[in-house]
Amino acid sequence: MSDGLRAADRTPVAGLARPGPPGTERLDRLVQTGRPVRAGRARVVRAFAGHRLGLAGLALIMLFTLCCFVGPLVYHTDQVHANIQLTNLPPGPGRPLGTDSNGYDILGRLLVGGQSTLEIGFAVALLATALGMVWGAISGFAGGLADAVMMRVVDIALAIPAIFLLIFLSSVLRPTTWLLILVLSLLSWLGPARLVRGETLSLRTRDFVEAVTVMGGRKLRVVARHLIPNAFGVIVVSATFQVADAIILLATLSFLGFGLPPPAATWGGMLSQGTTYLLDGYWWEVYPAGFAIMLTVIAFNLVADALAAALDSRQRTG
Amino acid sequence: MSGFILRRIGQAVIVVLGVTLVTFLLEHLIPGSLAHAILGTRASPGEIAAFNRSNGLDHPLLEQYSAFVGRLATGNLGYSYRLNQSVDSLVLHQLPNDVLLVGAGLALALVIAIPLGIAQAVHRNRAIDHLATSATFALYSMPSYWLAILLIAGLSIGLHAFPAEAPQTATVGGLLASPRALVLPVLTLTLVNVALFSRYMRAAAIVTLAEDYVRVARAKGLPARLVLSRHVLRNSLISVTTLVGLSFPAVLTSGLIIEYVYNVPGVGLTYYTAAVNADYPVELGITVLVGVVTVLGNLFADLAYAALDPRIRYE
C-alpha cells in the first residue's frame, strides 16, 4: 500500500482538472495527454522502438497491409460470381478457410475486404484529422465569438451519434467507397477538432507564441508554423485512434447491411452473413472475419497507445 | 454559479435547435422529395401537389422549419405513413424497454468499472493490473456485435445456458418475466461499457491516490480500507458523473447494435427496421429524440459536476 503516494506517479489527466468536460466520444483520449515540446522527435522514435506492444501492433498493420494488397495478386479467387456448387464448404485443400453461402472463397474474400477496410480507414483518418486540425486551431486561436460559434457546430454534430446518421444516409443514398470516405470523415473530425482546440488554447499563451505576435507575425503564420507543428504529436496519436474508430464504424455499418452493397467484399458483411450459419456449425464463416476486424483494431490501438506513451516520456524527461 | 447554469442551459438549447436543423435538412435530402418517397414513384402530379399542400411542404423553407420546430416543441415527433401510427406512440411503447436494457447495462458496468479502476490504481503495474488492462483493451477493440456473437456461440449454442434472443414481448413486464433471456443482451452491454469506462476510472483513481488529502488520511493512521472507501471512492464518483454524461452517444450506439443482434423490441431496433423500410418520418423522429437525450446527458453531467465538486468555481 506504499504506492499511490509517490509524486512521480502523478499522471496528468486532462479533463479532470478542467471545469467543463471536454467531451469526446473516445473517453480514453482524455486519459493521455502529451504536451509536445519542439525538438526531440528522435527521442520519441527511440521511446516508441522500446515499446514492444507498439512494435507488435505496427508489425501486424504492415503484415495485414501486405497480405491484403499483395495477397490477391498471388491467390486468385472469384469474388463476384456466386457458385452454388461450392457453397458452405469447410476448409480443405485449395480453400484454406472454406467457402461461404455464395460459394466465395473466404480467405480470398478476407483479403479483398481488407483492402477496402484499410483504404477507407486510412483515408478517413487523414481527412478527418486534417479537417479537425484546421477547425480546432482556428477556433482556439481566434477565440471569442468565432470560437463559440465553431464549437457549437461541433457540439451539434456530436449530439447525434454517428451510427444513426450513417444508417439514415445509407437508407437514402447508395454507398460507394468515395461516399463512405466522405461521410465517415464528415462525422469523425469532431474529436480531433476539440483536441486541437484544447492544445491551441494552452499553446497560445506560451511565451514563444506571444513573441511571434509581438514581432508582428501574422495570425495565419502563428497557426500554421507554430501552433499546428507543436500540437503535432497529439494529432498523430489522435489520427491513429481515428483509423481504428473508422474501421469499427465501417464494419458496423456493413454488419447492419448499410455498407458497400454486394457483391463488394466487406468484413462486417461477411460476419453478418456467417452469423446466420452459427447454429449449423459453419465456424469458418464467422470467426475469420470477426478476428480480422478485432485484430486490425487492436493493432491500431496498440500503436496509438505506444505513440502516446512515447510522447509522454519526452514530456517527462525533456 | 447561477450564471454558469443559465449559460450552460442556453448552450444546450442552441445545440438542440442545431439538431433539429440538421434533421430538417436531412428530411430535404431525400432524393425525389418526401412526397415521392411516401406516395411512391407512380404518384400523379396532382396527388403530389395535394400531399405537399396538406403537409405544408409548399411553404418557404424557413416557414417549414419553424413549423417543424413548433411541432417538435409540442412533443410531436412525426407520423409514420408506412405503419400508419404516430412516431410518439411507437417510441413511447418501446422506450421503457430501452431504459431497462441500457440502464441495467450502464449501472452494472459502473458497479464493475469503479472498483476495478481503483483496484488497478492501487496495484498498478502488477500482474493483476496488467491482466485487467489487457482484458479491457481487448474488449475495447471489439465491435459490440462481435462480442455478442462470441457470447452467443459460447454461452447459448455451446453451453445452452441462456437463450440467444431477448424475450419477444412489447412490455417491460414481459421482458422481466423471462429474466434468463435478458442475461446475454445485458451482459454484452455491460462488458462494452466496462471497456469504455475502466481505463478512465484507473487514470482518475491514480490521480486521486496521489492527492494530499489521501496522504493526510494515511498519515493519520486511517486503515487502508477506509482510505479507499471514504476518500478515493467518493472522490472518484465525481468524475463518474462526467463520464456517464459524456458516454451517452456511445451507450446509445451500442444499444442499437445489441437490440439488432438480440432482436430486442426497442427504439434502436425500430430505427433499424425503419431504415430498412425507408420509413423516413420514424428515422428522423428517433434521430431528434437521440440528439435531445445526448444533449440532456451532457447538460446533466456538467451541472452535477459543478454541484458535486465545491472546488470548482465559475466566473
Describe the model.
The complex is a heterodimer of chains A (318) and B (315). The model of chain A is unreliable at 1-39 (pLDDT under 50). Chain A is an all-alpha fold and 318 residues long. Chain A is built from twelve helices and no strands. Chain B is built from 14 helices and two strands; from the N terminus they run ααααββαααααααααα. The model of chain B has no long low-confidence stretch (mean pLDDT 85). Chain B is mainly alpha-helical. The relative contact order of chain B is 0.14. Chain B is globular and about 85 Å long. A two-stranded antiparallel ribbon of chain B has the order 1-2. In chain B, helix 6 (127-140) crosses helix 9 (179-209), helix 9 runs antiparallel to helix 12 (248-262) and helix 13 runs antiparallel to helix 14 (280-308). Chain B is 78% helix and 1% strand. The termini of chain B are close together. Classes of the chains: A mainly alpha (318), B mainly alpha (315).
Structure, briefly:
The complex is a heterodimer of chains A (318) and B (315). Chain A is an all-alpha fold and 318 residues long.
Shape of chain B: globular
Query: For the report, how would you describe the main beta sheet of chain B?
Result: 2 strands, antiparallel
Q: Give the termini distance of chain A in whole angstroms.
A: 30 Å
Largest interface, per-chain counts? A-B, 62 and 76 residues
| Total helical segments of chain A | 12
Oligomer: heterodimer
Specify the helix fraction band of chain A: 55-70%
What value does the Rg of chain A take, in angstroms? 23 Å
Query: What is the residue-mean pLDDT of chain B, rounded to a whole number?
Result: 85
Distance between the termini of chain B: 7 Å
Largest sheet of chain A: none
- Number-wise, the strands of chain B total 2
Give the low-pLDDT segments of chain A: 1-39
Q: How large is the radius of gyration of chain B?
A: 24 Å
Helix content of chain B: over 70%
* Low-confidence spans of chain B: none
Strand content of chain A: under 5%
- N-to-C order of helices and strands of chain A: HHHHHHHHHHHH
